[in-house]
Amino acid sequence: MAQNPLRVLVTGAAGQIGYAIVPMIARGVMLGPDQPVILHMLDIEPAAEALNGVKMELIDAAFPLLKGVIATTDVVEACKEVNIAVMVGGFPRKEGMERKDVMTKNVSIYKKQASALEQHAAPDCKVLVVANPANTNALILKEFAPSIPEKNITCLTRLDHNRALGQISERLKVHVSDVNNVIIWGNHSSTQYPDVNHAKVTTSSGEKPVRELVADDQWLNTEFIATVQQRGAAIIKARKLSSALSAASAACDHIRNWVLGTPKGTWVSMGVYSDGSYGIERGLIYSFPVTCEKGEWSIVQGLKIDEFSRAKMDATAKELIEEKALAYSCLG
Ligand code: NAD
Ligand code: LMR
User: Is 254 a catalytic residue?
Assistant: First the structure.
Protein backbone atom coordinates (compact mmCIF):
# COMPACT_ATOMS: atom_id res chain seq x y z
CA MET A 1 0.00 0.00 0.00
CA ALA A 2 1.31 3.47 -0.86
CA GLN A 3 2.54 5.37 2.22
CA ASN A 4 1.40 8.92 2.98
CA PRO A 5 4.11 11.47 2.24
CA LEU A 6 6.10 12.89 5.16
CA ARG A 7 6.81 16.62 5.21
CA VAL A 8 10.48 17.43 5.64
CA LEU A 9 11.61 20.98 6.38
CA VAL A 10 15.13 22.08 5.44
CA THR A 11 16.02 25.59 6.61
CA GLY A 12 18.90 27.36 4.87
CA ALA A 13 17.98 25.28 1.84
CA ALA A 14 19.65 27.66 -0.65
CA GLY A 15 23.02 27.13 1.06
CA GLN A 16 25.71 24.53 0.55
CA ILE A 17 24.39 21.82 2.84
CA GLY A 18 20.88 22.55 1.60
CA TYR A 19 21.95 21.97 -1.99
CA ALA A 20 23.55 18.66 -1.04
CA ILE A 21 20.79 17.36 1.23
CA VAL A 22 17.58 18.04 -0.70
CA PRO A 23 18.34 15.54 -3.49
CA MET A 24 19.34 12.97 -0.88
CA ILE A 25 15.98 13.40 0.88
CA ALA A 26 14.11 13.27 -2.43
CA ARG A 27 15.92 10.03 -3.36
CA GLY A 28 14.96 8.26 -0.14
CA VAL A 29 18.40 8.38 1.51
CA MET A 30 16.90 9.91 4.67
CA LEU A 31 13.60 8.08 5.11
CA GLY A 32 13.97 4.97 2.97
CA PRO A 33 13.22 4.02 -0.63
CA ASP A 34 9.45 3.54 -0.07
CA GLN A 35 8.70 6.75 1.79
CA PRO A 36 7.28 9.61 -0.33
CA VAL A 37 8.22 13.11 0.85
CA ILE A 38 7.10 16.70 0.48
CA LEU A 39 10.03 19.09 0.83
CA HIS A 40 9.59 22.41 2.63
CA MET A 41 12.56 24.68 1.91
CA LEU A 42 13.12 27.88 3.87
CA ASP A 43 15.69 30.60 3.32
CA ILE A 44 15.87 34.35 3.79
CA GLU A 45 14.87 37.07 1.32
CA PRO A 46 18.38 37.71 -0.19
CA ALA A 47 18.53 34.00 -1.09
CA ALA A 48 14.96 33.76 -2.44
CA GLU A 49 15.96 33.64 -6.11
CA ALA A 50 18.62 30.98 -5.51
CA LEU A 51 16.10 29.00 -3.46
CA ASN A 52 13.68 29.10 -6.35
CA GLY A 53 16.48 27.80 -8.58
CA VAL A 54 16.88 24.80 -6.25
CA LYS A 55 13.15 24.18 -6.52
CA MET A 56 13.41 24.28 -10.33
CA GLU A 57 16.21 21.69 -10.24
CA LEU A 58 14.22 19.43 -7.93
CA ILE A 59 11.35 19.50 -10.42
CA ASP A 60 13.77 18.84 -13.29
CA ALA A 61 15.26 15.84 -11.47
CA ALA A 62 11.83 14.10 -11.59
CA PHE A 63 12.37 12.21 -8.32
CA PRO A 64 9.66 9.52 -8.04
CA LEU A 65 9.39 9.89 -4.23
CA LEU A 66 9.05 13.67 -4.30
CA LYS A 67 5.35 14.56 -4.00
CA GLY A 68 5.69 18.32 -3.60
CA VAL A 69 8.11 21.20 -3.04
CA ILE A 70 7.49 24.38 -1.08
CA ALA A 71 10.18 27.05 -1.40
CA THR A 72 9.52 30.03 0.83
CA THR A 73 10.96 32.83 2.92
CA ASP A 74 7.96 32.70 5.25
CA VAL A 75 8.85 30.73 8.36
CA VAL A 76 5.21 29.95 9.20
CA GLU A 77 4.50 28.51 5.74
CA ALA A 78 7.77 26.56 5.94
CA CYS A 79 6.96 24.96 9.31
CA LYS A 80 3.32 24.04 8.58
CA GLU A 81 2.65 20.40 9.53
CA VAL A 82 6.24 19.28 9.06
CA ASN A 83 7.10 15.84 10.46
CA ILE A 84 10.88 16.28 10.28
CA ALA A 85 12.75 19.58 10.61
CA VAL A 86 16.39 19.79 9.57
CA MET A 87 17.65 23.15 10.78
CA VAL A 88 20.61 24.15 8.62
CA GLY A 89 19.84 27.88 8.29
CA GLY A 90 22.44 30.19 9.75
CA PHE A 91 25.93 31.42 9.11
CA PRO A 92 28.87 29.05 8.73
CA ARG A 93 32.28 29.45 10.31
CA LYS A 94 35.01 30.87 8.07
CA GLU A 95 38.73 30.14 8.21
CA GLY A 96 40.25 31.26 11.54
CA MET A 97 36.89 31.54 13.34
CA GLU A 98 35.92 29.48 16.41
CA ARG A 99 32.33 28.26 16.72
CA LYS A 100 31.75 30.81 19.46
CA ASP A 101 32.23 33.51 16.81
CA VAL A 102 29.08 32.43 14.99
CA MET A 103 27.12 32.29 18.23
CA THR A 104 25.66 35.80 18.23
CA LYS A 105 24.26 35.53 14.72
CA ASN A 106 22.89 32.04 14.97
CA VAL A 107 21.30 31.66 18.41
CA SER A 108 18.85 34.50 17.78
CA ILE A 109 17.66 32.70 14.62
CA TYR A 110 16.94 29.59 16.70
CA LYS A 111 15.02 31.54 19.33
CA LYS A 112 12.72 32.94 16.60
CA GLN A 113 12.28 29.67 14.73
CA ALA A 114 11.46 27.80 17.96
CA SER A 115 8.07 29.52 18.19
CA ALA A 116 7.21 28.87 14.53
CA LEU A 117 7.98 25.16 14.92
CA GLU A 118 6.11 24.94 18.19
CA GLN A 119 2.99 26.51 16.71
CA HIS A 120 2.91 25.06 13.22
CA ALA A 121 4.85 21.79 12.96
CA ALA A 122 3.17 18.37 13.39
CA PRO A 123 2.88 17.59 17.13
CA ASP A 124 5.40 14.73 16.96
CA CYS A 125 7.86 16.60 14.72
CA LYS A 126 11.47 15.39 15.05
CA VAL A 127 13.97 18.24 14.98
CA LEU A 128 17.64 18.01 14.01
CA VAL A 129 19.78 21.13 14.41
CA VAL A 130 22.79 21.22 12.09
CA ALA A 131 23.73 24.92 12.13
CA ASN A 132 26.51 25.88 14.51
CA PRO A 133 26.88 26.09 17.41
CA ALA A 134 24.68 23.02 16.90
CA ASN A 135 24.28 21.84 20.53
CA THR A 136 23.58 25.33 21.85
CA ASN A 137 21.24 26.27 19.00
CA ALA A 138 19.29 23.08 19.80
CA LEU A 139 19.25 24.02 23.48
CA ILE A 140 17.89 27.49 22.68
CA LEU A 141 15.30 25.95 20.37
CA LYS A 142 14.24 23.57 23.15
CA GLU A 143 14.01 26.31 25.76
CA PHE A 144 11.99 28.65 23.54
CA ALA A 145 9.66 25.89 22.33
CA PRO A 146 8.64 24.41 25.68
CA SER A 147 5.69 22.46 24.27
CA ILE A 148 7.90 20.40 21.92
CA PRO A 149 8.93 17.30 23.90
CA GLU A 150 12.64 17.51 24.75
CA LYS A 151 13.20 14.05 23.28
CA ASN A 152 12.20 15.45 19.88
CA ILE A 153 15.01 18.02 19.74
CA THR A 154 18.48 16.82 18.77
CA CYS A 155 21.66 18.11 17.17
CA LEU A 156 24.08 16.67 14.66
CA THR A 157 27.22 14.94 15.93
CA ARG A 158 26.85 12.08 13.48
CA LEU A 159 29.33 13.77 11.17
CA ASP A 160 31.96 13.54 13.93
CA HIS A 161 30.94 9.92 14.55
CA ASN A 162 31.34 9.12 10.85
CA ARG A 163 34.69 10.94 10.78
CA ALA A 164 35.90 8.75 13.65
CA LEU A 165 34.76 5.61 11.78
CA GLY A 166 36.57 6.90 8.68
CA GLN A 167 39.85 7.50 10.52
CA ILE A 168 39.81 4.00 12.07
CA SER A 169 38.94 2.37 8.76
CA GLU A 170 41.79 4.23 7.00
CA ARG A 171 44.26 3.30 9.73
CA LEU A 172 43.30 -0.41 9.77
CA LYS A 173 42.61 -0.62 6.04
CA VAL A 174 39.18 -2.17 6.69
CA HIS A 175 35.79 -1.25 5.23
CA VAL A 176 34.19 1.62 7.11
CA SER A 177 30.98 -0.41 7.45
CA ASP A 178 32.91 -3.03 9.44
CA VAL A 179 33.80 -0.48 12.15
CA ASN A 180 31.15 0.10 14.82
CA ASN A 181 30.40 1.66 18.17
CA VAL A 182 32.77 4.61 18.29
CA ILE A 183 31.31 7.36 20.48
CA ILE A 184 31.33 11.12 20.24
CA TRP A 185 30.78 12.62 23.67
CA GLY A 186 29.77 16.23 24.19
CA ASN A 187 29.88 19.28 21.99
CA HIS A 188 30.14 19.42 18.18
CA SER A 189 33.31 21.48 18.60
CA SER A 190 37.00 20.97 19.08
CA THR A 191 36.40 19.86 22.70
CA GLN A 192 34.33 16.85 21.61
CA TYR A 193 35.69 13.52 22.81
CA PRO A 194 35.90 10.80 20.15
CA ASP A 195 36.10 7.59 22.21
CA VAL A 196 37.10 4.19 20.78
CA ASN A 197 37.18 2.27 24.07
CA HIS A 198 34.04 0.30 23.15
CA ALA A 199 34.52 0.30 19.38
CA LYS A 200 34.91 -2.93 17.43
CA VAL A 201 35.69 -4.19 13.96
CA THR A 202 34.00 -7.12 12.25
CA THR A 203 36.78 -9.34 10.88
CA SER A 204 36.81 -12.76 9.20
CA SER A 205 37.58 -14.22 12.65
CA GLY A 206 34.78 -12.40 14.50
CA GLU A 207 34.52 -9.05 16.28
CA LYS A 208 37.73 -7.48 17.59
CA PRO A 209 38.20 -4.38 19.77
CA VAL A 210 39.55 -1.37 17.87
CA ARG A 211 42.20 -0.81 20.57
CA GLU A 212 43.53 -4.33 20.12
CA LEU A 213 43.68 -4.07 16.31
CA VAL A 214 45.23 -0.59 16.24
CA ALA A 215 47.69 -1.62 18.97
CA ASP A 216 48.92 1.94 19.37
CA ASP A 217 47.35 3.68 22.37
CA GLN A 218 49.58 6.69 21.88
CA TRP A 219 48.08 7.31 18.41
CA LEU A 220 44.52 6.64 19.61
CA ASN A 221 44.87 8.96 22.62
CA THR A 222 46.44 11.87 20.75
CA GLU A 223 46.54 12.12 16.95
CA PHE A 224 43.29 10.24 16.32
CA ILE A 225 41.35 12.42 18.78
CA ALA A 226 42.87 15.66 17.47
CA THR A 227 42.20 14.71 13.83
CA VAL A 228 38.50 14.11 14.49
CA GLN A 229 38.20 17.21 16.69
CA GLN A 230 39.86 19.40 14.06
CA ARG A 231 38.38 17.85 10.92
CA GLY A 232 35.83 20.63 10.41
CA ALA A 233 38.63 23.23 10.46
CA ALA A 234 40.77 21.09 8.11
CA ILE A 235 37.90 20.95 5.58
CA ILE A 236 37.40 24.73 5.82
CA LYS A 237 41.14 25.25 5.24
CA ALA A 238 41.14 22.97 2.20
CA ARG A 239 37.83 24.00 0.59
CA LYS A 240 37.61 27.57 1.89
CA LEU A 241 34.07 26.47 2.69
CA SER A 242 32.77 24.30 5.49
CA SER A 243 31.91 20.64 4.99
CA ALA A 244 28.72 20.13 3.03
CA LEU A 245 28.35 16.74 1.37
CA SER A 246 29.52 14.85 4.46
CA ALA A 247 27.33 17.03 6.69
CA ALA A 248 24.29 16.40 4.48
CA SER A 249 24.97 12.68 4.41
CA ALA A 250 25.42 12.55 8.20
CA ALA A 251 22.14 14.45 8.72
CA CYS A 252 20.38 11.79 6.60
CA ASP A 253 22.06 9.03 8.65
CA HIS A 254 20.94 10.71 11.89
CA ILE A 255 17.28 10.95 10.87
CA ARG A 256 17.21 7.52 9.18
CA ASN A 257 18.48 5.75 12.31
CA TRP A 258 16.21 7.82 14.57
CA VAL A 259 13.09 6.99 12.51
CA LEU A 260 13.93 3.49 11.24
CA GLY A 261 16.16 2.26 14.11
CA THR A 262 19.78 1.29 14.71
CA PRO A 263 20.93 -2.22 13.75
CA LYS A 264 21.01 -4.68 16.67
CA GLY A 265 24.21 -4.56 18.70
CA THR A 266 25.27 -1.17 17.35
CA TRP A 267 24.84 2.42 18.40
CA VAL A 268 25.34 5.86 16.92
CA SER A 269 26.15 9.29 18.37
CA MET A 270 23.43 11.93 18.64
CA GLY A 271 23.33 15.26 20.42
CA VAL A 272 20.37 14.77 22.79
CA TYR A 273 18.89 16.19 25.96
CA SER A 274 20.94 14.98 28.92
CA ASP A 275 18.95 13.19 31.62
CA GLY A 276 22.01 13.15 33.87
CA SER A 277 23.42 9.91 32.38
CA TYR A 278 27.18 9.48 32.91
CA GLY A 279 27.11 12.41 35.34
CA ILE A 280 26.49 14.97 32.58
CA GLU A 281 24.51 17.99 33.77
CA ARG A 282 20.80 17.54 33.08
CA GLY A 283 19.31 19.69 30.34
CA LEU A 284 22.43 20.19 28.24
CA ILE A 285 22.23 19.00 24.64
CA TYR A 286 25.20 16.65 24.78
CA SER A 287 26.34 13.95 22.36
CA PHE A 288 25.87 10.43 23.74
CA PRO A 289 25.93 6.92 22.30
CA VAL A 290 22.30 6.06 21.53
CA THR A 291 20.28 3.20 20.15
CA CYS A 292 17.01 3.92 18.34
CA GLU A 293 13.87 1.83 18.12
CA LYS A 294 10.33 2.69 16.97
CA GLY A 295 11.24 6.33 16.45
CA GLU A 296 12.73 6.85 19.94
CA TRP A 297 16.35 7.19 20.97
CA SER A 298 17.78 5.91 24.28
CA ILE A 299 21.18 6.60 25.74
CA VAL A 300 23.32 3.46 25.96
CA GLN A 301 23.80 2.81 29.67
CA GLY A 302 26.45 1.08 31.75
CA LEU A 303 29.57 1.70 29.66
CA LYS A 304 32.77 1.68 31.71
CA ILE A 305 34.38 5.12 31.77
CA ASP A 306 38.08 5.35 32.65
CA GLU A 307 39.82 8.38 34.13
CA PHE A 308 41.11 9.62 30.76
CA SER A 309 37.60 9.55 29.29
CA ARG A 310 36.03 11.11 32.39
CA ALA A 311 38.27 14.17 32.16
CA LYS A 312 37.53 14.63 28.45
CA MET A 313 33.77 14.13 28.90
CA ASP A 314 33.74 16.73 31.68
CA ALA A 315 35.82 19.25 29.70
CA THR A 316 33.38 19.23 26.78
CA ALA A 317 30.40 19.48 29.21
CA LYS A 318 32.07 22.51 30.79
CA GLU A 319 32.34 24.16 27.38
CA LEU A 320 28.62 23.55 26.78
CA ILE A 321 27.74 25.15 30.12
CA GLU A 322 29.83 28.19 29.14
CA GLU A 323 28.25 28.31 25.65
CA LYS A 324 24.80 28.24 27.22
CA ALA A 325 25.66 31.29 29.36
CA LEU A 326 27.16 33.06 26.34
CA ALA A 327 24.07 32.27 24.23
CA TYR A 328 21.78 33.79 26.83
CA SER A 329 24.01 36.88 27.04
CA CYS A 330 23.80 37.21 23.22
CA LEU A 331 20.01 36.97 23.37
CA GLY A 332 20.09 39.88 25.84
P1 NAD B 1 25.65 28.37 3.86
O2 NAD B 1 26.01 29.77 4.22
O3 NAD B 1 26.06 27.83 2.55
O4 NAD B 1 24.06 28.20 3.96
C5 NAD B 1 23.33 28.68 5.04
C6 NAD B 1 21.99 29.17 4.50
O7 NAD B 1 21.21 29.58 5.62
C8 NAD B 1 22.12 30.37 3.55
O9 NAD B 1 21.43 30.10 2.34
C10 NAD B 1 21.48 31.50 4.34
O11 NAD B 1 20.82 32.43 3.50
C12 NAD B 1 20.47 30.71 5.19
N13 NAD B 1 19.96 31.44 6.34
C14 NAD B 1 20.57 32.41 7.09
N15 NAD B 1 19.73 32.84 8.03
C16 NAD B 1 18.58 32.14 7.90
C17 NAD B 1 17.34 32.15 8.57
N18 NAD B 1 17.09 32.99 9.58
N19 NAD B 1 16.38 31.29 8.16
C20 NAD B 1 16.60 30.45 7.13
N21 NAD B 1 17.74 30.40 6.44
C22 NAD B 1 18.73 31.23 6.82
O23 NAD B 1 26.13 27.45 5.06
P24 NAD B 1 26.31 25.86 5.07
O25 NAD B 1 27.69 25.55 4.65
O26 NAD B 1 25.15 25.22 4.38
O27 NAD B 1 26.26 25.59 6.64
C28 NAD B 1 25.08 25.80 7.36
C29 NAD B 1 25.32 25.65 8.87
O30 NAD B 1 25.67 24.32 9.19
C31 NAD B 1 26.47 26.51 9.40
O32 NAD B 1 26.11 27.05 10.66
C33 NAD B 1 27.61 25.51 9.53
O34 NAD B 1 28.58 25.93 10.46
C35 NAD B 1 26.84 24.31 10.02
N36 NAD B 1 27.49 23.00 9.90
C37 NAD B 1 27.28 22.10 10.89
C38 NAD B 1 27.82 20.83 10.81
C39 NAD B 1 27.57 19.80 11.90
O40 NAD B 1 28.17 18.71 11.82
N41 NAD B 1 26.78 20.05 12.91
C42 NAD B 1 28.59 20.48 9.71
C43 NAD B 1 28.80 21.42 8.69
C44 NAD B 1 28.24 22.68 8.80
C1 LMR C 1 32.15 20.80 10.56
O2 LMR C 1 32.36 20.12 11.57
O3 LMR C 1 32.60 20.51 9.44
C4 LMR C 1 31.28 22.02 10.68
O5 LMR C 1 30.76 22.14 11.96
C6 LMR C 1 31.95 23.24 10.21
C7 LMR C 1 32.82 23.83 11.27
O8 LMR C 1 32.65 25.01 11.56
O9 LMR C 1 33.68 23.12 11.78
Answer: no
Instruction: Answer yes or no: is the C-beta of 242 below 6 A from any ligand 2 atom.
Output: yes
Please compute Rg for the chain using Cα positions. Answer: 19
* 274-319 confidence digits (pLDDT tens): 999 999 999 999 999 999 999 999 999 999 999 999 999 999 999 9
Under CATH, domain 6-155 is a member of which superfamily?
NAD(P)-binding Rossmann-like Domain (3.40.50.720)
Asked if 8 and 40 count as a contact pair (C-beta separation under 8 A), the reply is yes
Write the class of the CATH domain 158-326: alpha beta
> Is 116 near ligand 1, meaning CB less than 6 Å away?
no
The string of pLDDT tens digits covering residues 24-65 is 999 999 999 999 999 999 999 999 999 999 999 999 999 999
Residue 210, CB-side half-sphere exposure with 13 Å CA sphere: 30
The pTM score is 0.97
